[in-house]
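Collaborator request log, item 7. Partner lab (contact: R.S.) asked for a structural prediction of NADH-ubiquinone oxidoreductase chain 4L to inform their binding assays.
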Amino acid sequence: MMNFSFLSVFGAVFMIFCGLWSFISYNKHLLNSLLSLEFMMLGVFWLLSLQLSMVGSEIYISLFFLTLAVCEGALGLSLLVLIVRSHGNDYFKSFNLLEC
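Returned to partner:
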């Protein structure tokens, strides 16, 4: 019978690879890219929490990581709102690097 910790680690690594795959393959919209990045951060947080619980050390490092991931998500959403207001949509093909 498989160990629960092995299944949890496998699930976290699977989440990271699924987020990476969606980040690479579905890059038409900025919102899809931001959601896949957040999904990868959730998988890394899960893996970090599992590792720290197995070691038996304090869990404050994972809470600090979760706080940084939430700040990254808020920054991404604010950039998304700024881009939608300035360009009208979130398609990557409509962004022009020569515009200010």
